[in-house]
Specification:
Blueprint (H helix, E strand, L loop, with lengths): L2 H18 L1 E7 L5 E7 L7 H7 L9 E6 L4 E6 L3 E6 L2
Antiparallel strand pairs: 1-2, 1-5, 2-3, 3-4
Length: 90
């Protein structure tokens, strides 16, 4: 299967999960270290200011997902290909 199609389908699956849930995402950072981050895209869990900032003019990049990190109260991103797991939190 084409790598672009694979990334796009993984991106859509992860985006949908994050849009409906608070999740714990484990991924390898660009510097090679492992990071576990509590994050979401669920509108009800985003501060209004954060939602406004995020939706200015965004171009979809199927290689990267930008999420609201609940630990840092800031936008963070990770590469789709570097994700090891996505766990839905209660």
């Amino acid at each position: 299967m084409n790598q672009d199609v694979t990334n796009q389908s993984r991106w859509k699956e992860m985006f949908d999960t994050l849009a409906h849930n608070l999740c714990e995402v484990t991924f390898t950072k660009v510097d090679g270290t492992l990071r576990t981050m509590s994050c979401t895209l669920k509108t009800e869990l985003l501060p209004k200011q954060a939602l406004t900032e995020h939706h200015k003019t965004r171009v979809i990049n199927y290689d990267v997902i930008s999420v609201w990190c609940t630990d840092k109260s800031a936008w963070r991103s990770f590469r789709v290909e570097n994700v090891r797991s996505v766990v839905i939190l209660p």
